[in-house]
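User: Please predict the structure of the protein below. I'd like the answer in structure-token form so I can feed it into my own downstream comparison script.

Assistant: Understood. Taking the following sequence of 736 residues as input:
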Amino acid sequence: MGIIINQNVFTLHTDNSTYQMKVDDKGILLHTYYGQRTDETDYSYLITIADRGFSGNIPQSGDERGYSLDTLPQEFPVWGGGDFRVNCLQADLGTGVNDCLLVFDSYKTYHGKYALEGLPAMFASGEDRVDTLEILLKDYYEEFYVRLLYGVFEADDVITRAVVLENKSQKDISFNRIMSTCLDINNSGWDMIHFYGRHAQERQTERTALFHGITELRSTRGASSHQHNPFVILAEKNTNEETGCCYGVSLLYSGGFHMQAEVDQTFQTRLVMGIDDSDFFWRLKPGGKFTAPEVCMSYSSTGLSGLSRNYHNAIFKHLIRSTWKEKQRPVLVNNWEATYFDFNAKKILSIAEEAASLGLDMLVLDDGWFGKRDTDFSGLGDWYVNEEKLGCSLEELVHKINDIGLMFGIWFEPEMISEDSKLYREHPDWAMVVPGREPVRARSQLVLDMTREDVQEYIKERLFSVLDSANIQYVKWDMNRSIAAAYSAKLPGGQQGEMRHRYVLGLYSVLEALLERYPDLLLEGCSGGGGRFDAGMLYYSPQIWCSDNTDAVERLRIQYGTSFAYPMSTVSAHVSVCPNHQNGRVTPLKTRGICAMQGTFGYELDLSKMTEEEKSIVRNQVKSFKEHYRLFQFGNYYRIVSPVENHDVTVWEYADKNGKEACLAAVFTDLYGNAISHIVKFRGLCPEGKYKLFRDGEFEGEYTGAALMQGGILLPVPKEDYDSFQFYVCLEEDEG
């Protein structure tokens, strides 16, 4: 069992890490250790008790002035006990002010993993070595309880945390801040790696030193956002891909979030993360409960690459539920950049015929097939097939596409509404509009109030009606604006602070109903590309459209940042036309294909307009991707040369978990006269193994795994802008 309890010390072990906490003689739950696997020694001897001055003393401390929550490492710090640092909870327990003091009440353990009602959470299955610890804390004065949940995934080196608030008093309790986790580290000098951006530039990587004071990231946009991702890394100064210590913290939540990291007066470091609290307020009635989202934490002593593998494996095994995660995903073509709104059945069928001839598996019909929808100014909410535009019924179109030999997928944006729509004219109160004010518009659309059950029922009825009408095997679920001026006509004035979180719960409820009705549906998440790329959404959709930016060179940085937390099998990536529609760049078709093969592979262009030479390249790309699909889907992913640190070339690799085969790709992003040669080294091979090396499908030679990993290979000198190469190695006995 991964949980060992020795009197008042709780030690959680994974295969390579140890997490420990202790209830001290004052009843306070202290955090004592998180790091490389060790024994059950009580590590509270590392905690300093000293009078720092101007640090308050709780009632239990008596005359012991050196005992202050302001300087102690804690599992769940709250506002009101004299701790002036960033905290996890600010609650009014009936006094009219935020004031709370939590002490230990009880605990229990059990084999398996806790679940969270209405929220995504990692799960155990089969013979997994997963255990749960529940620790119950109680306010020192009131019948208010905080239940801390810990899930210990031993083999995967991750520990999950969640929080449940319970009001067992006879009066209302309110809170305006609830963080899901706290990580207290007894030293400073840490770097924080985070993933910032904007639309079409998501998850750019930035590494900064934490300074004395508070560093914070947040999304106030109602979704996890393009601007910041709910995943951060704390790393030692010398930590790189292969060496050094680092911690990861990932929030399984698709709404706004808040992360704060503080270096305090005694050079300790604290990190908290949870629901965005910028306008959050929740009232808890007597007997009521509130569940905060789950956080997944991991520690690696083998660098950033080891941390990423922990997350990749854990997310794949314990978060993604889709029946598609083990199956080969279809290579698809999406018509959006090929046609935008200008299409009919004939044009779609011409793309489908070309797709089938090139070996693709699916056609996806994007925006414009419903209601009055020839521009983005109208039609959202009216999820009725526009048969006049198509020239046939959806069932007829899908049947013809199936006859061609392709599966069929379709695009929805269920959370949005256009003012020029039948739905808005009938139900204007369903849109988020503050009474007496003009609505805040974005992309000429408003947001539906997903907190309302009638809105949820309408969305389900419309989606189910469309999906029942034809053989639809894939849905792309989009969200193309942020939430501003959040208001629900259904909620009382005093509960408007609950609006944003209730919105996310409503979204999850609809997604759960959709997948319950269509368990074999391949659902792809999207929010203007990567505006809601988070672990919470992966509980419902096994893949997410990584970015609306389809330029292969810019995708190098976007997909690089994404890879730190998320399996590349969750990254939806397509080959698009050149010049690229986002930035006008011209990139070789070969390079566009190699970049898209980093994730779930597909195309976003009009295949019928390609030359015969280009079609031949596409056939070979599709054939190669399918031949090596299991390697791309299930292999270990390595970041070999970073596009952030090296502006000449970007290199990544997939290696079979048993070292039998690997695929290394290199994309050159700059050219030089009298260019130098680059040596790159494979990872994850068997040193004693004898491998055959192929470059772009052509045999290059035979090498030992030791030679490929220690000596490396010499990259060819690029011959054109954005040239690229793909190297495949396999053990001699496994060739083919």
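That's the full token string. The first helix runs from residue 303 to 318.
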